[in-house]
Amino acid sequence: MGAKRSANSSEAATGKKIKMKEAVNNERKDGTIFASCSFSSLGLHPTICNELLGRMGFEVPTSVQAQAIPVILSGRHVLVNAATGTGKTVAYLAPIIHHLQNFDGRIQRSDGTYALVLVPTRELCLQVYEILQKLLHRFHWIVPGYVMGGENRSKEKARLRKGISILVATPGRLLDHLKNTSSFLYTNLRWIIFDEADRILELGFGKEIKEILDHLDSKTGCANQENAVSRHSRTLRQNLLLSATLNEKVNHLAKISLENPVMIGINCKETEPISTNLSSSESDEESEGNETKYPSNMLHTPAGDYKVPTQLIQRYVKVPCGDRLAVLLSILKYLSEREASQKIVVFFSTCDAVDFHFLLLSEFQFSYPQSEADARQIFLGGKVFRLHGNMDQEDRRKTFQTFKTEKSALLFSTDVAARGLDFPKVRCIIQYDSPGEATEYVHRVGRTARLGERGESLLFLQPVEIDYLQDLEKHGASLTEYPLLKVLDSFPLYGQKKHTKNFVAIESHPWVLCLQKALESFVTSKPKIDKLAKRGFCSWVRAYTTHRGELKKIFMIKKLHLGHVAKSFALKQQPSLVAKSYKKQAKRKRFQKPIGLAKKRKIAGVT
Ligand SMILES: Nc1ncnc2c1ncn2[C@@H]1O[C@H](COP(=O)(O)OP(=O)(O)OP(=O)(O)O)[C@@H](O)[C@H]1O
């Protein structure tokens, strides 16, 4: 099949570069998210521009799209570092579709896969696939598809056999197919995209990625390249790496997968900042054939490098360990009463903690002190969802799809929802358990305040963990204190609507004491929830021991009072009893395959 480089890609991009640079620079000056140019001025095919407008409702490109699209159209390898929710997905999908629809002689399913998008989680896989479906509506001959853990392998094999032009995949399952699905054709592979590149590596997929690249290289290697050259007049392979938090961890991947890349949104030691990146595509012709490899330590990541949406209101709340649960419930109630319709995501460190809090919140009934005996009611009305890596795939899919469309709901999740997921209209992110690495903080809060919308985030810290704020500050995240006492004072007690007295300590606040007591009796009376509370306690303590590096000095298990941790799971029992039951479980599991704690914490909730 013959293919030509799109006539208008580099030419149009070159011709419009000066205008483009002006547009992007204007955008940067007034600090808005959108660029003052059109999609068509970036060199995209008119049908794609129509689809972006008609089907997606995108009138103009975002700043990152305005910067990235012409460079990606030009065929250069690219590293994109832009804040969460700035439109990176379309920034890489649109140019690929542009090229594929422009090939001389339509591409066919039997050609196999042309573009591969690697993502760290199943939900992100589905999300990218759905966007692809929309963008490809008018290009029925370009077939989107996905393969990911938890899906039926045989059905995936059948789809791969028929041919998938743009394949979205999680690394483990992709490698499985590369090894075991002989009908999976990828000799025409031209694009590899690592979306959330740093997360893919953090999840321990480094080895898989190396193997994947080796496999792809071996099939498209020497023997086939001649063939490929005749099909594609230029650029045999174009690789793209994207994330809001590209950091040193990506250096290795960048080194092995990128040649002479253009850096977008990155402070580099050896390349110019963003504004000159556009001009680096001007030097395309000069750099053609240039074998410059990605230089070591190219990514210069000084502290304060992470980009958090500027309109996001970031706060922290300092809560003694034993009062965490009562405070969480109070804040959730306060927020839901303040704004009847709003979406909130609460992050936990483990799947067990998600399960416990989900069931508790779904069932907890409460009656205000000295109110009518039959005034017991569900503490928090409204829909609650949960999402974590130990859930059945169908439940995960259902939660993901439903929470997206809800106008008002609560989602309890592990970090499985931290990366890339685009839930519309999430107003508030609560990090009930600390995220650990600052990168994860950035991605978790990035689920709100997307594309210039308003949003707020709240980080729970115990008094002994307060130094974590300095760590975040070093990475450019400044948090102010949440007015907790004001919120607690707003709850009616003893039949009064408002407290006349302001209480100074959270531990002795009558509302907190009353709520804690009610929670403990409720959990004691519900064996199923009680069991989940004990499991949640055990896994929470284990997760707490897995903080790494400098963070170990802040999140020190030795500083924790386990009795207070138990209280935060509404357990009245001595923690030693809980630990005993955990030890019994652990003993039973001793003969099962051991998994490193740190790895387990990271992976259990995420893949
Ligand atoms: N040009 C545009 N005009 C209007 N909306 C857009 C445009 N581009 C993207 N969007 C919307 O912006 C939102 C964020 O886009 P996207 O998920 O691609 O961001 P992202 O930068 O990949 O975020 P993250 O870093 O969290 O993965 C989505 O709802 C998307 O539909």
Outline the secondary-structure elements.
Blueprint: H1 7-15, H2 17-30, H3 46-54, H4 63-73, E1 78-81, H5 88-102, E2 115-118, H6 122-135, E3 144-147, H7 153-162, E4 166-169, H8 171-180, E5 191-195, H9 197-220, H10 222-231, E6 238-243, H11 249-257, E7 262-264, H12 274-282, H13 284-287, E8 312-318, H14 324-338, E9 343-347, H15 351-363, E10 365-366, E11 377-378, E12 383-387, H16 393-405, E13 409-413, E14 426-431, H17 438-445, E15 455-461, H18 468-474, E16 480-481, H19 484-489, H20 510-525, H21 527-544, H22 562-567, H23 575-589, H24 597-604
Parallel strand pairs: 1-6, 1-7, 2-4, 2-5, 3-4, 5-6, 8-15, 8-16, 9-13, 9-14, 12-13, 14-15
Antiparallel strand pairs: 10-11
Helix pairs in contact: 2-4, 2-12, 4-5, 4-12, 5-6, 8-9, 9-11, 14-20, 15-21, 21-23
The structure holds adenosine-5'-triphosphate.
Written account of the structure:
- With 607 residues, this protein is an alpha/beta fold.
- The protein contains 24 helices and 16 strands.
- It has helices at 7-15, 17-30, 46-54, 63-73, 88-102, 122-135, 153-162, 171-180, 197-220, 222-231, 249-257, 274-282, 284-287, 324-338, 351-363, 393-405, 438-445, 468-474, 484-489, 510-525, 527-544, 562-567, 575-589, 597-604; strands spanning 78-81, 115-118, 144-147, 166-169, 191-195, 238-243, 262-264, 312-318, 343-347, 365-366, 377-378, 383-387, 409-413, 426-431, 455-461, 480-481.
- A 7-stranded parallel beta sheet has the order 3-4-2-5-6-1-7, sandwiched between helices. A 7-stranded parallel beta sheet has the order 12-13-9-14-15-8-16. A two-stranded antiparallel ribbon has the order 10-11.
- Strand 3 (144-147), helix 7 and strand 4 (166-169) form a beta-alpha-beta unit.
- The radius of gyration is 26 Å and the shape is elongated.
- Mean pLDDT is 82; it is low at 1-30, 221-235, 268-298, 300-304 and 589-607.
- The site of adenosine-5'-triphosphate has 18 residues, from helix 5.
